[in-house]
Amino acid sequence: MSNKSSTVTWNEIDWAKTQKNIRQIQYRIYKARLNGNFKKLHWLQNFLINNSGAKMLAIHQVTTLNKENKDKQIITKPEKKIELAKQLSIDGCSQPIRKVWIPKPIKEERKQAQIPIIRDRAKQALVKLALEPEWEAVFEPNSYGFRPGRSALDAIEGIFLSLHYGKPKWIYNADIRKCFETINHKALLEKFNTIPILKRQIAAWLKAGIMEEYANTKKDLITTTGIKQGHMLSPLLANIALHGLEIELKNFVSNLAIKPHSDSNRGTAAKRKALTIIRYADDFVLIHQNKEILELCIYEVKKWLNELGLEINEQQSVLKVKDGRCGFEFLGFHIIQVKKKTVDRYKVKIYPSRKSQQKLLLKVRDIIQHHKAVSAYQLIMMLRPIIIGWANYFKYCECQTIFTKLSHLIFEKIRAWVFRRDTRRGRIEVKEKYFPSGKSYNFDGKQHFDNWILVGKEKDRGGNYLENFLPHLSWVSSKKHVKVLNNQTPFNKDLYWAIRSVKYSPYSRRVQTLLIKQKQLCPICNQALTFFDSNSWELDHIKPKSQGGKDEYNNLQLVHKECHIEKTRIDKLDYK
């Protein structure tokens, strides 16, 4: 869309073209910041926040692409969306944050979440379009949280690469999440070198408590589907607040007179290389072979954080330097250095933490106990994304033994659910109904034969029977994750991302297969499927399942969510 007023209706907007135009402006913002051309940078940011296409994209983000809407304010009518986009402007004002009570999973208690109203969420999405490419040009290489093209798996792989040299090291694992409630707003705003209206807008949001909202709900943001609605800008602000920590510590250790370890030289490069800083949003890990140097770094971290009004979260952090051989937890993984049997060296072992395993089992149990009367088909539809999603996150580690154990524990819960619901018939008859013998199952590109797989059937509107099955968690194979290169970002338009999105991305096998098959293009709009829109990719059945379409590769395509919505609307009209 152009920056001029238009009479186009919401359903007539060419989202592929709009996104392409906005990405081009963002690329120019990235290049301007990289080259230090602040005059051009500020002009482009001002142009972007006043661009009608960017405003439409921001409204589209908060009303269509994001699935969750906790403030109960829903806008579905196209004319209302157009009206909201026309009224959207960065004015330096902030509406009061809506406080809602959200039930905690598994537990009976509820927690309070602070959710900006929909207009402010759209404003945050618009500001993020302008700020994110600027900061991606300067962010530190070992910052991985809530950045495009980066994930928690990159942070875990970074820790592995630091510990796998065979020498025991010392670890400091810290969390400063709660302290964002008291962040020094003036110190944070001083980090911004942007146009005045953006600075005033951010100051208004800080005053309204945007960082408090992040502090209270940050753990909910770490999901396999991306950032939830209502948290558009706060993760970016958290990254900006903590930007400079890695540079500060690297400069600090390079000026120390102490050698990193007995075998190293006293050069600056050796001192900087010996210290590893891995940061995921406001959780970070410091790793060093010399305990004395690490303790000095911890003191420097606390001093640096104090200037921002921040301090280490004492309840969530390991407040002492820990030997890597004792193990520690980070982002759901347990990481430990284990001595090899044959040689006097140490290897790194990474596997899902006990807390993560327990959380999965409790979630599965909760679903089964609260849905005793649903059909097997419906239960599978609820359990499968949770189990496979959990497995896809943890498959990039030494997980097979744990996957086998959890697979058995989940199967015991499923079997108990089956035999408890049908007590009139014999057990053999019940078993064959829910766990049919002699069947084979195609999962993750492999053929599996098992007589104890839960199978569900359901009749659709067309009278056709749909069938699904619950795969064993142990069927998910372990893989090796390749860490993103240090300063790579999707904003640089490098060929690196086209290769990585297929070969090394943490997507499921089905998504990877379709990406290769489609040459990374959406078959509906014929535009590229990129890291920017990966949170809104959806699997579409070319011939809808309601019309007899099968769940097979020749009937599947990977599309943008907005393309999927439009295709579904047309399919329904054709079916009628």
UniProtKB/TrEMBL annotation:
Keywords: Chloroplast, Endonuclease, Hydrolase, Nuclease, Nucleotidyltransferase, Plastid, RNA-directed DNA polymerase, Transferase. It comes from the Eukaryota. This is Putative reverse transcriptase, intron maturase and HNH homing endonuclease. The keyword Metal-binding does not apply. InterPro entries: DNA/RNA_pol_sf (IPR043502), GrpII_Intron_Splice-Mob/Def (IPR051083), HNH (IPR002711), HNH_nuc (IPR003615), Mat_intron_G2 (IPR013597), RT_dom (IPR000477), RVT_N (IPR025960). PROSITE patterns: RT_POL (PS50878). Residues 1-335 form the Reverse transcriptase domain. It holds the Pfam family RVT_1. GO terms for molecular function: endonuclease activity; nucleic acid binding; RNA-directed DNA polymerase activity; zinc ion binding. The keyword Transferase applies. The gene is orf576.
